[in-house]
Amino acid sequence: MMKSVKTVLLGLSLLLGLSLTAHADRIRDLTTVQGVRNNQLIGYGLVVGLDGTGDQTTQTPFTTQTVNNMLSQLGITVPQGTNMQLKNVAAVMVTAQLPAFARQGQTIDVVVSSLGNAKSLRGGTLVMTPMKGVDNQVYALAQGNILVGGAGASAGGSSVQVNQLNGGRITGGATVERELQSNFGSQNTLNLQLNNEDFSMAQRIADAINGRGGYGAATALDARTVQVRVSPDNSSQVRLLADIQNIDVSIPIEDAKVVINSRTGSVVMNREVTLSTCAVAQGNLSVTVNQSQNVSQPNTPFGGGQTVVTPQTQIDLRQSGGALQRVNASANLNNVVRALNALGASPIELMSILQSMQSAGCLRAKLEII
C-alpha cells in the first residue's frame, strides 16, 4: 500500500514539475509567413513653412537647386544668377514601410528627417514627394504637416532643447499608388519561417499541424522553415493559414545563453543558465597621469634671463583586489544572480568574469557578445 502511494506521489510530482516548466505558444507568435513582409520606401523632398529654422542655402546648394526644380515644374522661372536666401525651406529624406498586400488608396505613415543644416522641422509641411522602392519605381506619394516630438528655444546666446527637432512623422502621410505583386501560395505551398532557428521547434510545429486533420501535410525543411502543402484555391489558403496560426505548440527547453553588450556594459541571461562551483579572483589596475606646468623665472630682472615654462608629469599606478572568492554551483537563475552579485563586480568586470568562467567550463551557457 505504501509503495503504491509513493508511486502516485512521484507521478504527481513529475506532472506538477512539467506543468510548471512547460508552456505553449501559438504558431503565429513563433513564425512568420515567407513572402509576407514590409518593403522599404525612400524619397527626397522639401519641407516648407518653417519659422526661420530651415537650411542655410549658402551652405546647402542642393536645397536651392531643389527649390528651382520645383518652381520650374510649377511653371515659375527663376532668373539665372539669382541668389535666393531661403530660411523657411529644408531638404529632407522621407522613409516609409510598404506593408504586404497594400492596396491603392491605402495610407501609410512616413518619417521625415533633415538632410541639410536646418535647426528645426517644427511647424513645417512636406510637399508632394514620390516614394520609391529598390527597383526605382514610385509606389506612394507623401505630403502633409510634420509632427515633431521635440521642442526648443534660444535667446541671448543660450538655448534649451528637448528631444530631437530635425526629424518628425506624418501619420497616414503617404498614399499607395502602386501595388506589389504577391506570389502568396502560388506554388501550392506555404512556408512558415521560425523567428529563431531551432530543429526541435520546427519539428514540433510540423507535428502540431499534421496532428490536426484536414490542415494539410507539413514538413520541417530545416531549422528555420516549415513547409505546408495547400490547395490552389486562394480563399482556402487564407482560411487554412488562419487556422494554422492559432494552433498551440509546446515550447521546448531553450538553450542557455548569456548576451553581453560590450558598448553599454549590459549583461542579460535567460532562465536556463547554470553555474558550476569555481573560484574567482578579480583585481583592478588603475593608471593616473597628472601633468602640471612649472614657471621658472630668473631672480635678477636685469641679468638677461628668460622666463621658462616646464611641464612636470606624475604617473601613479595602483592595483587593488585579487583575493579568491568561491562561487557556489547554481542550478537556477535566482541562485546564479545571487552568486554573481556576491562577487561585488561592476558590469564591466562581470563581462570579463563571465568570459573566464566559460573558458574554465564553469558557465554552462552560450556566451554571445554584441
From TrEMBL:
<dbReference type="InterPro" id="IPR001782">
    <property type="entry name" value="Flag_FlgI"/>
</dbReference>
<dbReference type="GO" id="GO:0071973">
    <property type="term" value="P:bacterial-type flagellum-dependent cell motility"/>
</dbReference>
<feature type="signal peptide">
    <location>
        <begin position="1"/>
        <end position="24"/>
    </location>
</feature>
<dbReference type="Pfam" id="PF02119">
    <property type="entry name" value="FlgI"/>
</dbReference>
<keyword id="KW-0966">Cell projection</keyword>
<dbReference type="GO" id="GO:0005198">
    <property type="term" value="F:structural molecule activity"/>
</dbReference>
<keyword id="KW-0732">Signal</keyword>
<protein>
    <recommendedName>
        <fullName>Flagellar P-ring protein</fullName>
    </recommendedName>
</protein>
<comment type="function">
    <text>Assembles around the rod to form the L-ring and probably protects the motor/basal body from shearing forces during rotation.</text>
</comment>
<comment type="similarity">
    <text>Belongs to the FlgI family.</text>
</comment>
<dbReference type="GO" id="GO:0009428">
    <property type="term" value="C:bacterial-type flagellum basal body, distal rod, P ring"/>
</dbReference>
<keyword id="KW-0975">Bacterial flagellum</keyword>
<keyword id="KW-0282">Flagellum</keyword>
<comment type="subunit">
    <text>The basal body constitutes a major portion of the flagellar organelle and consists of four rings (L,P,S, and M) mounted on a central rod.</text>
</comment>
<dbReference type="GO" id="GO:0030288">
    <property type="term" value="C:outer membrane-bounded periplasmic space"/>
</dbReference>
<keyword id="KW-0969">Cilium</keyword>
